[in-house]
Structures are given as C-alpha cells and as structure tokens.
Amino acid sequence: MLITSSRKPSVNTRTLCKYLATFFNCKYLTRGKMGLADIMSHSDDPHVVVVGDYHGSPGSFIFYGEDGEELLSIRLSMFYPEDYKFTNLKSVEPVLAGDSELGELIAHYFDIYQGDCDGISKCIRVEDDRMEFFYSGRLLFRFNIKSYRVAEAAD
Fold first, then answer.
1. What CATH number should be reported for the domain holding residue 107?
2. pLDDT per residue over 57-69, tens digit each?
3. Which end of the chain has fewer beta carbons closer than 10 Å to its terminal beta carbon, N or C?
C-alpha cells in the first residue's frame, strides 16, 4: 500500500498521511505535482490511498487499484482526543476489529488481519460510521465516516 495526499494538501493532511503510513507499515509519497499514473509507478503494491483535504483538514480517502481505477471512496471528518499526541509506533502489524462492510473493505485493501484487538498494540475498530485507531489501548484518533461508496467494479 502507498499513501499520498491530494495536491496542495494542508499541513494536517500531510502529517496524517505520514502517520497513517507508519501505522500501516507502508510507504508514504509526497505528491507534489505528480499525477495518479506517476504515483502508481512508485508503488510495489497495486493499491494506493489518496488522502484529500476539506477546509484544511483531512476530508476523504480514495482507494485506487493497480490500473488507477477508483475502488473505494470515503468522506470523513477527524476527531482527536483532548490528550492527542503523535507517538512513535512500533512496526508491528495492526489488527482490524469489526465485521461491517466498510471493515471488510479496509481489511482487504490494506491487507490487514481481522480479529480481536485484545492485547494487540495497534488496533483499528471499524463500524459503518467510524474508524477508531488505537495504540496500546489508547485512542489516537477517529475518523467519523460521513459516507462511503464502493466502485461497481471493485474486487
């Protein structure tokens, strides 16, 4: 998986992209003026996630497949707990808890094991209306899902 931002992203969006790449143990690529085809050529994995901006904050995720086709689009808003602080994350694989349709799609595209998060240091809890990211049992941040759309030809 490769994570990048939309063109001209806010500082918040660039920071989140880097943090998500660390969380998912995948590559982050600074977008600059590159088009989607250029970005795809930098990835060894067939899936790319583009994090979009909305009024200076992360506002969307778009998952693309190897041919540049859109697979999944998620509109979201961010929530940070009061004691929120980016931390150094160990490079262990995250586990996804949740059996909603969105959880199944996220697990598939990020190639994440779905199971129970008890005792797991990196955990994502997914429901159709939210994605919560935990590290060592502490909430790092949450995406409030406004809507999502699965492309017709998604695998």
1. 3.40.50.10480
2. 899 999 998 888 8
3. C
